Amino acid sequence: GFSCEKCDFETDLCKALHELNLQPGWIRRNGRSAMGPPYSDHNGNDSAYFLSLSSQMRSSSATLRTNVFLPTDEEHVCQITFHYWISQKNGTLMVGLQKHSEDTITNIWQVSGELQNQWKANTITINSTEKYEVIFLGMVETQRQDETVAIDDITFSEGC
Asked: Which residue ranges form the domains of the chain, and what is each CATH number?
């Protein structure tokens, strides 16, 4: 049967992600938090939680790592679907793949801030012959409150 792990951030992080306190720069909040946009999650709910870059952080980028996933095969590809929000001036969200035998992170998807401040959805498919982690990297150029990158509802398919 098809089962998937969904991270909606309503209570905390899901099992597929490392604990957030190891990942400085991301903050779990909702649209009522008085921290600037976005003012709701991707469903338009201002009390539902999502992750966004903290405007208080010293560095301008933050990573969110998954736990180690097993190699994929033909029957079990790993599909990751997520919603993202990027401020229109300068935000970037990258998704990278780090295989166990490599130190480097391979960039598999990237988007920058031409999105006019709205939630969008994206699905990426991963094939890897060895164990791997997936990394979400959010970046902003300035530390203004209206400049942010947010992530919501990350869903991992059974092949992950």
From this structure: 5-156 (2.60.120.200)
